[in-house]
Each structure stands twice: as C-alpha cells, then as structure tokens.
Amino acid sequence: MTVEVKIGVQYAPRELSVSTEEEPAAVLALLDQALKDGTVFTLTDAKGRTVAVPAEKVAYLDFTSDVGRKVGFGLAASEAVTAASK
User: What is the pLDDT of residues 42-67, one digit of tens each?
Assistant: First the structure.
C-alpha cells in the first residue's frame, strides 16, 4: 500500500510530499528516533528518492493512503453514463 506523507517544515511556505511504501507507524518511529538523536529525518519514496529534513524543523506529518486517481471530473463511469443519458 502506498502512503502519501506530507511533511510540514517550520518557516517553509510549502510542504513536502513523499509517496512511500512505509506504514505510518514506521514513519513516525523514524521521526521519533531522529528527534531523540538530534539528527536528520530521512524518508525514501517509492521511486528510491530520499528527502531529508532536520528533525527539529518538522512541524507536522500528514498521512493519506493512495486510493487511486479519479477519472474525468470525479464521476465514476456508471455515473457519467447515467448523467449523459439524461
């Protein structure tokens, strides 16, 4: 299961977004360990790219599971056919 992790960084206007195969509990454990050690929090995405943020600068983590992309304007195929036939 792919999980999208949005990382809020203090004093940064935008959040970082990383899609990873890690479970949310494992990501939280990585951040907790980095905070205890005073090191950099690193997270590797599904394509092998790594994001690194000083652990003390992480403002928040937001987890969302990837349920796939919607097709069209958010209508399921059956709804689109029904709407088109009216």
Answer: 999 988 999 999 999 999 999 998 65
Please give the full DSSP string across 1-47, using - where no structure is assigned. --EEEEEEETT-SS-EEEEESS-HHHHHHHHHHHHHHT-EEEEE-TT
What is the distance between the alpha carbons of residues 61 and 24, in angstroms, rounded to a whole number?
Answer: 9
Q: If DSSP codes are grouped into helix, strand and coil, which group holds residue 79? A: helix
- The pair phi, psi for residue 67, each rounded to 5°, is -105, 15
In degrees and rounded to multiples of 5, residue 69 shows phi and psi of -95, 145
Taking a C-beta distance cutoff of 8 angstroms, is the pair 35, 46 a contact? no
pLDDT, tens digit, for every residue of 22-34?
A: 999 999 999 999 9
